[in-house]
Amino acid sequence: MFYVSRDKKKEPAPECVAFHPFAADIFLSERKIPHIARYVELPTLSAYDEVPAVLVVNVQVPLYPASILHGESDGEGMNLVMYFKLSESYSKELPTHFRENIMKLINDEVERVKGFPLDTIAPFRERLKILGRLANVNDLQLSATEKKLMNAYNEKPVLSRPQHEFYLGENYFEIDLDMHRFSYISRKGFETFNNRLKYCIMDFGLTIQGHKAEDLPEHILCCMRLNNIDHTKYSQLGC
Fold first, then answer.
1. Average pLDDT score, the chain
2. pLDDT digits over 184-194, tens only?
3. Contact status, residue 12 vs residue 5, Cβ threshold 8 Å
4. Distance between CA atoms of 147 and 30, rounded to whole angstroms?
5. Where is the Protein ENHANCED DISEASE RESISTANCE 2 C-terminal domain (predicted)?
6. Phi-psi region of 49 (alpha: psi -120 to 50; beta: other; left: phi over 0)
7. What residue numbers bound the domain in which 129 lies?
């Protein structure tokens, strides 16, 4: 179960989601593969109004050692690709304001953000938020330092900006999350788990951060449980 925000307090996320999972892939490559939906045959599904029928989430995971140098942001990696289809009850279960926010995300709209001394204009896509959880922490043999990190960061939501890209296709919307550009500390922490991913049960989700009372509680854009990811079982490909 994911927890979302209501007035800066966590509460269980509503059970209805905008997109339901139907498949996942792992692709290994020498360099990052952006806009991976170009190379995948997607099913033909019915859309709703202007909302694409398929959501593709491409998590680009580095498999080379983390470097403290800022210029190191590409190389051998794993593309963890998750596929979601539009909920059949999209127009019935989801509140109007959340559906409107999804359209703003897809259409790359901007919004005014209050600030001091002046308000600023920011892309609405900067509200995209990652929800992540390692569900079987107690099953893993973690060091004292790793346990401390898990207690601090497990289940902690994080905005995806600026390490994200978006692509709109004929019947799909793709979100690329580029972990190659994550901070050195984040990458170094994840690097310690690379060889133990095959033992991990991970929950992944996306939501749109709420800025106004009517945005709360936050609703889930998509979510998926991932089990026993072992990138050593796959071969590299090139695009």
1. 89
2. 888 888 888 88
3. no
4. 32
5. 6-230
6. left
7. 3-233
Residue 239: both structure tokens together? 């695009």
Q: Output the pLDDT for position 6.
A: 58
Question: Nearest-CA neighbor of 49 among 98, 103, 111, 121?
Answer: 103
Q: What total number of domains does the chain contain?
A: 1
Give the integer Cα–Cα distance in Å for 185 and 191: 10
The overall pTM is greater than 0.85: yes
Q: Give which of 165, 208, 158, 206 is closest to 185, Cα–Cα.
A: 158
Other CB atoms within 10 Å distance of the CB of residue 211:
13
Distance, CA of 83 to CA of 103 (rounded, Å) = 19
Residue 177 within any structural domain of the chain = yes
- Residue 187 neighbours by CB distance under 10 Å: 21
CA angle 205, 207, 213 (to 5 degrees): 150
The identity of residue 124, as a single letter, is F
* CA 68 – CA 91 distance, rounded (Å): 46
The answer as to whether 213 is a domain residue is yes
229, part of any domain: yes
Please say whether the beta carbons of 101 and 50 come within 8 A: no
